[in-house]
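Researcher: Structure prediction, please.
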Amino acid sequence: MACNYKHVTHCIFDMDGLLLDSESVYKQIYQTIVSKYGHTYGGDLAYQVLGRPEVVGADLIINHYKLPITIIEFQDIYHRLQRELFVHVNMMPGAERLLMHLKENNIPIALATSSSKDSFELKTKKLTDVFNLFHHRVLGGSDPDVKKGKPNPDIFLVAADRFPDKPDPSKCLVFEDAPNGVEAGISAGMQVVMVPDPNLPKRFTEKATMVINSLIDFKPEEFGLPPFKN
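Model: Predicted structure follows.
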């Protein structure tokens, strides 16, 4: 029920799989790399990698499949495939509407993504208008203030601290799709709205404050934010 949710003043958004329909491209990239060595990418490993910084994901995959390559070699292939496959990425349903609504109602919003600066620019090249709506962007993959990636809380605490009024974490609402991101948000002392992949096993959604099928289903007023007019 709505009364279980605490009112918030600021919103912080993950990017991949939440705002951008990019996780399917990542799966394709990882599958291309591991298939060269006779493996199929997926299972619980995919959920462990989801939302993690690039280097951590590479390390997990190399160790899991015992690939005979270094992290640097993995990243070289990964970056090449990124440039080929991330030519145009679409927004997820309801994402742009929600961001525009919050911006129009003067609710401070920030981005907190594990992507590096290069990766972020590649994926959002054709979506600059939408991503310019954020007050600031924390790009965990290349931000020196983010010491540890998700599931550690660092990225969300840095994002909160960069708002001019430095809100208490309890006043920030995180939007995530990945279990690692949900854990990071909860560890930061924030409420987390999760929009999981439909195939994600239910056990990975248990820590979230709220679970919805799509950002279209989000009702801002449940967290004390201005409701949609239509």
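Model: The chain has a mean pLDDT of 94.
Researcher: Thanks, that helps.
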